[in-house]
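FYI - complex with manganese (II) ion, inputs then prediction.
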Amino acid sequence: MAVRLLHIADLHAGKITAKVLNRNKDLEHALEQVLQVIKTTRVDYLIIAGDVFDKAIPDADSEHLIYNFLVEVGLRGTTTVVIGGNHDSPKKLRNILPWGERFKVKVFPVLDLKKFIFTDGDVAFVNVPFVHERAITDLDNDSPEGAKVSYSEKIKKLLMHGARLAENYRYRILTAHLFFDRVKLGHTEREVTVADAYAVAQSVIPETFHYAALGHIHRYQRLEEAKTIAYYTGSLYQLDFGEAEEDKFFNLVALNDNGTVEVEKIKISPLRVLKKVTVKAGEVSKLSASVNEKGETYLWVEVEAKTPREFLDAKEKLERVLGDKLLKLTVRYGANPERGVFRTSGDEERYFQFNPSDPVEAYRAYLSSKGKKVDPELLEFLKKLTDEVKSQTK
Ligand SMILES: [Mn+2]
């Protein structure tokens, strides 16, 4: 009989968008849709591929929401496999272990080679929670002394080891919270853990797995360069404006007896959506009318103004009409397409202009906008490099 699994990831329970909007209602709405599938069709396993919570120490409401969901799933006879993501505290997830067993919840908070594989009859799960670069050591010592082995290489060995452990099982599933190279990024994962040092080649996923259930990247996508069927299902709702207007999905996967795999992409109907709009200061009333019709749309409004006075008038009007639907408000003064500009984030806005065709100037402006020191040697190097490229492309 085929094995049927649901794959979700990046729940981020406790997420606050734009510092004010608590998103647990959105998560709950999405999880109800997941539960609906479990109630109406046979689902043997639910995979949660990391980032269960948004913060290491989640608030009480977020824990309540997640634990209730896990219990609901377990009571319907579905086994849940949870791995830790980079947002999760391994110790917090570990606290599910004592009671999770009674509700068929298997938790893998942290990479542990002794508890690397979970098997259930003829099904094997190899579980790779998020692992920091320094925390992963070589599995064997065949590399020369002192040789620098990349994160990608280490992960490759780890996955090969997992594939060997699973090889005698009929159905083989990989769950991992990892950043694979050459994937389409959203904007909200852009933090240290999607830096190049953490990029893993898609080709390292062993083809012996029937399906790889991935978490970490918030955009739904199949990994086209992987040798097996591998998916990021992405976040369950638009976490931030970087994901504005993106549709969200999860996968229902059937591993058939004859070795074939069927993936059904299920669209989540969102409770609330995020949208960014740009509007001229004099035309904000137009905007408020169109937004009210749309209902549960939360906005980032960028106002184009000529003067601070004009912006303040627009701001007052927007706040009055949009109320709590206005999540974020920014201003652009006298937009000049000839010049690029970086803006500081935070309460006091400052602008750093640059010539878009000069990468050195752009980099300097970027660093300044982030309040970072400018390293003159690095700038000099960058200048040499760009000059060299320019001279070669002439
Ligand atoms: Mn995430």
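The radius of gyration is 24 Å. The chain has three domains: 3-268, 272-338, 345-394.
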